[in-house]
Each structure stands twice: as C-alpha cells, then as structure tokens.
Specification:
Strand content of chain B: 15-25%
CATH architecture of chain A: Orthogonal Bundle
Shape of chain B: globular
Helix content of chain B: 25-40%
Radius of gyration of chain B: 19 Å
Strand content of chain A: under 5%
Number of helices of chain A: 10
Number of helices of chain B: 9
Distance between the termini of chain A: 31 Å
CATH topology of chain A: MetI-like fold
Number of strands of chain B: 11
Order of helices and strands of chain A: HHHHHHHHHH
CATH architecture of chain B: 3-Layer(aba) Sandwich
Number of domains of chain B: 1
Number of domains of chain A: 1
CATH superfamily of chain B: P-loop containing nucleotide triphosphate hydrolases
Distance between the termini of chain B: 36 Å
Helix content of chain A: over 70%
Largest interface: A-C, 63 and 59 residues
CATH superfamily of chain A: MetI-like
Oligomer: heterotrimer
CATH class of chain A: Mainly Alpha
Number of strands of chain A: 0
Largest sheet of chain B: 11 strands, mixed
Chains: A mainly alpha (253), B alpha/beta (273), C mainly alpha (255)
Chain lengths: 253, 273, 255
C-alpha cells in the first residue's frame, strides 16, 4: 500500500497540470504543474533563492533553540514547584492563546525588517508549545517514584535529574516537534508580512511583481520544508526515545 | 437452530497461508446451551466470528434457523470478551442496552420495558444512568449481557466472556447465564478455554482440536438441571466429566490422532469409577 | 478563596509592575500603561467595536464553520476507506505543512480583496488539521466496538452517527482546536494584507500612522479575543466530551 501514497501525489501533480490547460481555471491564477516546476528549477539556480532559504532556516533555527531552552527551563522550574505552578496557571492560560501575529506591528516598530522581527514572532509562538508540553511532562511524574527519591534524601537537583527529567523527556520531544512546525509557520509569516529576509519575503516579491509560477514554486518549497522538518522531528523523537519503555500519546496542545 | 457444516478458514499472511480451521461440523438445537472448548490458538474466536457473520469463511457453511449466514444475521446477539471495548463509552448503561433495539425499530414503550427488564435481570437496577467506565469489570460485562438479552435474540453467542474477570465475579456471572438461559429459553453457544466452566454451564460440550481445527470430541453433560457452584462442582460426576474433557484437550494439544475425525458421543455409565 | 487568590495573584502583580514601571516612560514605542489604557477606552467604543471587530469575528465564524464542516465531511469519507486514506495522506500532509498565511497571495489571485477572499483564506488555511484529525479519529475507532455495532445490525447512517463520529470526536475536537488558532491568525493576516475594516486592519493602520498607544490597545484587544475564544472552545469541548474525560480519568487511575 506504500505506493498508493506516491500515486496520490502523482495524481495531484497531474490534476494541477490538466486543470489550467483545459481552461477550468485561468492559467494566470493557477499555472500548470510543468510551469511551476520550471519556475522551481529557475529558482534553484538563483543565488537569491538559496539565500532566502538560508534566511528562513536561520530564523527558524535560532528562534526554535531560544524557545526550547526557555520553555524547558521555565517548564521544569514552574512544574517542579507546586506553588509556582498554581500561581502561574492563570497567566499561562491567558497569554497562551494570544495570536502571535498580534505582535507583528510591535515587531515592525522595534526591529523593522531585520531578523529580530522574525525571531520575536517565532520565539513567542514556539515557546508556549514547549512550555505546555513540559508542564504536562512534569505533572506526569509518578508520585511513588518521587516519594521514593525523597525518602532516600535525594537533593532537589538529584530528583530533577533522576526522576523528573526521564519522565518529562518524551513530552519535551513532543513539544520540540510541535514547536518546530509552528516556528516554520511563524518564520515564513513574519517574512511575508513584515519583509524580513527569507522565503516569505521572496513570495511577497513574486506576488507584487506578478510572477505567478514563481510564487507557486516558492510555496511548494515552503510546504516541502515543512514536511521535511516534521519528518526530521519525528525521526529524532523516535530514535531518542527508542529506549523509553512507554509510548506516551501526544497531549493535545 | 445453528448448523455448522464443513467450516473452513484460511488466513494468508504475506505469502504464507495458515489454515486456522480445517473442517468444523456440528449442530446446536433450539434452546440448548452448548459450550465450545479447545486449546489456546485453536481458532475459537475465528469460529465465533464466522458464525456471527463478522468474518467470511473460506469454505463450508453456517446456517442459522435454516438460512445461510452472509453477514450478521438478525436474531443473533454477541457478547465479547473485551467488555470494556464493546460498550459505547459515550453512552449511559441504559442507552447502551437500548441502542440495538432502536436499530431494530422496536416501538418506544416496548423498548423501555425490555431495557428495564434486562437491566434488572442482570442485577444492575439503579445503574441505568451511569457510564461504562464508572462500573467495575464484572458490571460492565453484565451490561453487555443485558444488552444481548434485551435484544431478544433467538441465538446468543458468547466469546470467552468471563476470561478477563476475577474468579468470584466469574462464578456469579456463570450462574447468571444459566439463570437467564433457563428463564428465557434462548439458544446459547458459549466459547471458553476454562474446562470447568464448560462442564458447569453446558448441556453439551464440544471439544476442538488444535489448529488446523476440527471437532475433536463431543460430550453430553448429564448433570442435573439445577446446578450451583458449591455442590455441583463437588459432585463426582462433575469431576469425571471434566477429567474426560481435560483428557481430550490434552490430546488435542499434543495433536494425537485419537478422535481427530471421530465424533464420539460419550455416555458415561460403566466408565465412571 | 485561596484558588481565586492564586488565579488572580500573578496577573495582578504583573499588571501593577507594568503600570508602575512604565509610568513615567518617555519611550515612543513603549508608552506608559496608563496611556494605553486611556487609548483603549477612547478607541474601542461600541461604535468602533461594531464597525471593526464585528466584521472580523463574522468572517472568522464563517470561515471556521466552512472549514469544520468540510474537514469533517471529507475526513469521514476518506477515513472510512483505507486505500483512499493511504493515497490521500501524503497529499494532505503536504498541504498541511504549507504555512497558512502564504496562501493569502494565492487566494488573492482568485478571489480579489473582498470579504470573500478573507473567508476563503480562513477556510482553506484551517481545514487541514480538522481533516487530518478526522481521518485519524475514524481510523482509530475501536475494532471490538465496530464489530459489536455490526453484529447488532447498526449500519449506515446510524453507524456514522453513533459509532464513527462519536468515536472520533476527541480527535476531531483536537483538530478543531488547532484550526481555531490558525483561523485567528489568518483573520488578522488577511486583514493586514488587504482590507477596509477589521481588527487586524485597525492595528496596522495605527502602526503605520504611529498611533502607538492605540496600536498597543489593539494588540491587547486581540489578545483578549484570542483568550475568550479559547475559553469558549474549552467550555464547549468539556461539555461535549465529558464522557471522554471521565474515561481517561478511569483509565489513568486503573493503570
């Protein structure tokens, strides 16, 4: 049944080839696949394209790392101290659903069209994904294990290292995976709307100059990037947790 | 009532072919309580699913009330082993029992009556509004039985229903099944791996061989109609019968030729001492 | 009482700190909180709420409803046939991976810059999580439960209603939740691109005309909106999936 998936993709390419040629939709709005692929080929030889890819990836990577570090550290800190957890719960619940795009005007004012704008959005959105998962992970610690550690007079650091961290680890990886996807979305969004360097900015340029096949080609690239990141994250997660006895379901973010 | 003729089931796993059931032939008359026992992996569940119309056999036929089975036949209810997974977790006990009746288009008043009677009959009166996950394992299985009973089936199939329940609950549920059977005069085909249970419950015990499965032997259980856990199980007749079944099952597990294609109807008389 | 104190404690502290710390602020970009609050009261009059916020919410509602209906309907259809699912899954995962805001320029080609464009953008952007989660939810319906339903002759529409949809509802709810976040983002982005009214539009206007306190007030309003919608969703979800929460609790205690 594996080939069915490939067949589906091939079908998509075929449909996109046929529809504009047959005239169902104007080729100005939806170029045929062949023209999109041609534009993709052109981009691949263009240095500016690869710079843009690099720009997006840098924004994504730096933002993700900051978000993950902050999310894990704060998550463990808050999660490990019940009082902190209770006190911050309402704040987290309030800040979490704030759409990161609300910060766009602020980013523009503070950073203009620099990488900083991208980072502001990426870090804000990704941070919550990591934090929420880490909090769930810490909450999942087996109280019996914790009490055992206490009765053996483990210090707080030792408890974190031997009890809390192994329990939270699968959740950390889930959080990283979710954050990785979100980070890409926000990076490209920031570039598109604000104009900071990256694929999103190129798409904006293609749109305003009417280069429709190029625009589609760039969109395909962002999609492929997203798929690649997702697959990579899942592979890393699987490998790193292969030794982990339990298979923890993803806690809905 | 139930007529299994030459049932055969072959599974293809990749490029291997596994003959789970080779040739099963037996009948169950109306109103009987027949138990099916066999060694592990002998295809008891496969057989039950074929009879229930959930699985298409590779060969042979199953006839229910004279009509061949090509899908789940009307008038048949099934009680599965995994009670937790066979009850709808988003429905209350009452709704779970009522759902098949709604499908059957039973008018509302009669439906309410059937549901109330069935829940009462299994001893769960008062839990109608509860959800399955709020009940213990034994109670959940009772709900499944109530659902089957309310359906007023002509034939009830039970697939190792008490295997996942603790021993004391199992004893209660066994008595419940016999009581319901005697009161409602249903036909019951009861599959189990527990030899004692098979002899305690059944009027007849059919023993299956190991895979590829055929009927190894059959036994008439000539214990009194009124049975109870304490006295019946202490009855020497019971012990003799279960020994017989045990021997057959052991032979089946070893795959000996003895009784592989015979249908031995044993009446224990001179044999029992 | 203690719970209330804990819930309100930190927010109140943060608010006070922000207020006090920015009191005498001369910074152009980070004005004192008291000015922002003043701007909030001045800007977001009932009139303004009607002309800007209501249209935004309206477009959000229509787009979201479209995505939910389409996503669930198509998801059920695909989820029920394993072969169809195998063929469609890579294609769907690809579309899901495309950052939704990127679709705005594309859809602008087809649909111009009016209300229709924004609704379509929202719908097309947030249908994927609903669709994919529905497919997964349908696939994962318990085999024993499915057999039980078949054995009791529960087929066709009844099967769809009682078994498939309810069985998949926790997964579908998760998809709907993700879709809501995306929908809000797209509502704002589509307005930032091309609009004549709306919350996103207003905020961008403030930013471009350097009306900073007003811009901040808009951001705060957007935050409140996101929060309110999220709470609303949780409330509805908890009611509808009460059985699921109970079931998971019971399973967790048992294991």
């Amino acid at each position: 049944m594996k080939w069915l998936g490939a067949a589906g993709l091939a079908g998509l390419v075929a449909v996109v080839e046929v529809i504009p040629r047959v005239g169902l939709v104007s080729a100005d709005y939806l170029p045929p696949s062949s023209r999109i692929f041609a534009a993709l080929g052109d981009e691949a030889t263009d240095r500016e394209f690869w710079q843009a890819v690099g720009g997006t990836l840098i924004g994504w990577a730096v933002g993700l790392v900051i978000a993950v570090v902050a999310g894990v550290v704060l998550g463990i800190l808050i999660g490990a101290v019940p009082l902190l957890r209770a006190a911050t719960a309402s704040t987290v619940e309030f800040l979490r659903p704030i759409p990161s795009v609300a910060l766009i005007p602020l980013a523009v004012l503070l950073f203009g069209t620099d990488l900083g704008s991208t980072l502001l959005l990426v870090v804000y959105a990704s941070f919550w994904q990591v934090l929420i998962q880490v909090l769930y992970g810490v909450a999942d610690v087996d109280p019996v294990a914790d009490e055992t550690a206490r009765s053996f007079r483990f210090t707080a650091t030792a408890r974190i290292r031997y009890v809390l961290w192994p329990t939270a680890l699968p959740y950390v990886f889930t959080g990283i995976r979710l954050a990785a996807s979100v980070a890409l979305v926000l990076a490209v969004t920031a570039e598109l709307v604000i104009g900071s360097p990256g694929l999103g900015a190129l798409i904006g340029v293609a749109q305003s100059s009417g280069a429709v096949p190029t625009m589609y080609a760039l969109i395909v690239v962002t999609g492929l990037l997203g798929v690649a990141i997702n697959l990579a994250a899942r592979t890393v997660e699987r490998r790193a947790l292969a030794w982990h006895q339990s298979v923890r379901g993803e806690v809905p973010a | 009532m139930l007529d299994v003729r030459g049932l055969r089931k072959v599974y293809s796993a990749g490029n291997r072919e596994v003959e789970a059931i080779k040739d099963l032939t037996f009948t169950v008359d109306a109103g009987q309580l027949v138990c099916l026992v066999g060694p592990s992996g002998c295809g008891k569940t496969t057989l039950l699913r074929c009879i229930a119309g959930l699985l298409a056999p590779t060969g042979g036929q199953v006839l229910v009330e004279g009509r061949p089975v090509a899908g789940p036949p009307p008038g048949m209810a099934v009680v599965f082993q995994e009670y937790g997974r066979s009850l709808f977790p988003w429905m209350s006990v009452r709704d779970n029992v009522e759902l098949p009746l709604k499908q059957k288009k039973v008018p509302r008043d009669r439906r309410r009556q059937l549901v109330a009677d069935a829940i009462g009959a299994v001893g769960l009166a008062g839990t109608e509004g509860a959800y399955p996950w709020q009940l213990s394992g034994g109670m959940q299985q009772r709900v499944a039985i109530a659902r089957a009973v309310a359906y007023e089936p002509s034939i009830l199939l039970m697939d190792e229903p008490f295997a996942a329940v603790d021993a004391q609950t199992r004893a209660d549920l066994e008595d419940l099944v016999r009581a319901l059977w005697q009161r409602l005069r249903m036909t019951i085909l009861f599959v189990t791996h527990d030899i004692d249970e098979a002899v305690y419950l059944g009027q007849r015990v059919i023993m299956l061989s190991s895979s590829p499965t055929v009927v190894q032997a059959e036994l008439s259980v000539d214990l009194p109609a009124v049975r109870d856990q304490l006295h019946t199980r202490a009855d020497p007749r019971f012990t003799a019968l279960r020994t017989r079944v045990y021997e057959q099952i052991q032979a089946a597990r070893r795959g000996t030729a003895a009784g592989l294609s015979d249908r031995i109807d044993e009446r224990l008389g001179a044999d029992s001492e | 009482m203690k719970r209330l104190a804990l819930a309100l404690g930190l927010p109140v502290v943060l608010f006070v700190v922000w207020f006090v710390a920015s009191y005498g602020s001369e910074s152009f970009y980070v004005p004192p909180l008291r000015r922002i609050l003043g701007a909030f009261a001045d800007t977001w009059t009932l009139e303004r709420l009607r002309t800007d916020v209501l249209p935004s919410l309206g477009r959000l509602a229509v787009g979201y409803a479209l995505a939910a209906t389409l996503g669930i309907a198509v998801g059920v259809a695909i989820g029920a046939y394993p072969r169809l699912r195998a063929a469609a899954e890579p294609v769907l995962e690809f579309f899901r991976a495309i950052p939704p805001p990127v679709l705005v320029p594309v859809i602008m080609l087809f649909a111009g810059i009016g209300n229709g464009m924004k609704v379509i953008v929202i719908a097309v952007g947030c249908v994927w999580p609903v669709l994919l989660n529905t497919v997964e939810g349908i696939r994962a319906v318990d085999g024993v439960l499915s057999d039980t339903a078949r054995a009791y002759g529960i087929t066709g529409v009844a099967r769809l209603r009682h078994l498939l949809l309810r069985g998949a509802s926790p997964q579908i709810a998760a998809g709907l939740r993700q879709a809501l976040s995306i929908a809000i983002i797209l509502m704002v982005i589509s307005e930032m691109f091309a609009a004549s009214n709306g919350l996103g539009f207003a905020i961008v206007q403030f930013q471009r005309s350097f009306a900073i306190p007003e811009m901040w007030s808009g951001i705060i309003l957007l935050g409140l909106l996101g929060f309110t919608l999220s709470m609303l969703f949780r409330f509805v979800e908890r009611r509808a999936l009460g059985w699921y929460n109970g079931l998971r609790e019971a399973q967790r205690k048992g294991s």
